[in-house]
Specification:
CATH topology of the largest domain: Arc Repressor Mutant, subunit A
Number of helices: 8
Shape: elongated
Number of domains: 2
Number of strands: 0
Mean pLDDT: 85
CATH architecture of the largest domain: Orthogonal Bundle
Order of helices and strands: HHHHHHHH
Distance between the termini: 101 Å
Low-confidence stretches: none
Structural class: mainly alpha
Strand content: under 5%
Oligomer: single chain
Largest sheet: none
């Protein structure tokens, strides 16, 4: 049997070995602590006269392998990320076009209107927060937001009208040509 103080000279080598196994500083520290704890718990199994570092490194390796097997068997098996990635689908063409239209309409707004829409509608800020940040009264925030929403809606309706006009023109051209 060994004393706990006899473990200290092996800490540096064990730490390096743990890092080689885990390739991560935090995981290496956890593995080192688990190894030392297991060694203290099982010190009665240590054969006097054998190499303490070899015994400790064997404990560390076994803990690492057990943890790795557990992780690959359970964590990846029940980890929803890969499943969700397979199930997720890219946004449809319509959604992408709507997003582009909104982005274009936002860029056509004045800086004040764009800023207030982003703060309230995108960032989810309260009117009081916006008022404080922009150093304007809450009533001004509300009226600007209302006008910004109206302007954005008008820009989006303009875009819709332009898009619906184009196919109608093409249909009319096709009829004339026929």
């Amino acid at each position: 049997m060994f004393s706990n103080a006899e473990l200290l000279p092996h800490n540096d080598r064990l730490e390096k070995f743990a890092y080689k196994l885990t390739r991560n500083e935090a995981d290496a520290q956890d593995l080192l602590q688990s190894t030392l704890l297991r060694a203290i718990e099982k010190k009665k199994l240590f054969k006097e006269g054998s190499n303490l570092y070899s015994w400790l490194s064997k404990i560390m390796y076994n803990l690492f392998v057990s943890g790795y097997r557990r992780k690959t068997k359970f964590e990846t098996q029940y980890d929803p990320e890969p499943y969700l990635e397979k199930q997720s689908i890219e946004a449809s063409q319509d959604v992408k076009m709507q997003f582009r239209d909104v982005d274009n309409a936002m860029n056509e707004l004045s800086d004040d209107h764009r800023e207030i829409l982003v703060m309230v509608c995108v960032q989810g800020m309260q009117y009081a927060e916006v008022s404080e940040r922009l150093d304007i009264p809450v009533g001004t925030v509300r009226s600007r937001l209302s006008r910004a929403r109206e302007n954005l809606q008008a820009k989006l309706e303009e875009t819709d009208q332009k898009l619906s006009y184009v196919p109608a023109m093409r249909m009319h051209e096709n009829r004339v040509a026929a």
